């Protein structure tokens, strides 16, 4: 098992690499995991989400316990929606309540699969090889919007707000998810504690089946769906999601306030030319 | 009105600019529309989709005529799903039937809004200023998948396959959409002919309201929804969408065949580091 993180350095540059004993051993990138030779103390660095996905694929109804509670049959193909890149934040960053929404905001603690290489129409074996590692996801939802319109469930809108996809704190490669439990605490009170082995589609099955629908790119994240214990977050409350071996992802919901629109940093916007 | 296109040059580079009389007047980019001084004959260039959106936001039920036909009330907020970047192709490129899907594939001719500057919580006036121009979109759908699972409508999956978002041939800035009609032909037979003035939410209203949900980036595209006349495409058939003043977007549906997975070209994958 190796632990991978992404940081902003003091000069505003972004560095990625393997973390061990308080030091970052820098690598070229997630898709080209070649050491650069640089070693940096992580104390001088600001942690970011461990990858910058072009898209996040979020599964619905992928745990037997939740399907039973909702009284829904388990699906025969992964059921998913897309969360946009701008919804991603890292550990410790605030979840921002939208200015336009005063309703219920829900947490969902989930295992995240981080894609390491481009894959399309992948077999389960090829899919397993395309997984770079695993992380934690809080799949935040503006719950009152989901069924606000009775004719069109608004999955992408309710789950697509800026800051509504917390990812981190690290990616762990070679992680044995089969034995792990995911624990979600809301202000230190345990709300979710479920075994990942209860998944309907395993990570490799998810990657294989979803790659038949759309091409997965390095850095893309699949949020594997949640299980029982989902609930709402009050403004100011902190959600902490833990899987032993990966770490803890903590984010606090901040009340609505106008956010200045930053100019587009170079290289962040879609490459138009 | 100016007409903007994006091309691949013989050396594999990508150029963007204003097209006039068979020549491309190159500009830095869509978000920085500054002329480079270069002028190139378009005959030596291969057309691409006119922008490379990080995300495509596709509206449902945004025309009064279609709402009446479906017997649905018009919505009070844009209803949308997300189509991923990898679904985008340009004019003339083939729509590929997925290997895993033998069912009905539908065309939807739509006006596309191309975002010119980052916007969040924009007023209608700010939103109007953030629109770079207008293009054409064929919002292709694997129609049998939409309601395959009775518990979860699969909008993102059905509309998110690679090549299922045709965009082009050009972006026209300063275009007066209010007077325009959109015409869709299937193998030269007219199937859609509807006035854009029948939209529920105007382009500026769409950009304003959607910017309250998620940050829009330069190059992002909003597909404004379709109206009556949607139908299915047989393998080998060609869909041509025309708005006078913008041009014609033609794409042919090719039968399913295995597509080699290209290595990730530099700069195309999500920037992980």
From TrEMBL, chains A, B:
Pfam families per record: FAA_hydrolase (PF01557)
Fumarylacetoacetase-like C-terminal domain ranges (all copies): 55-253
GO molecular function per UniProt: acetylpyruvate hydrolase activity; metal ion binding
UniProt name for this protein: Fumarylacetoacetase-like C-terminal domain-containing protein
SUPFAM superfamilies: FAH (SSF56529)
Signal peptide per UniProt: none
Alphabetical UniProt keywords: Metal-binding
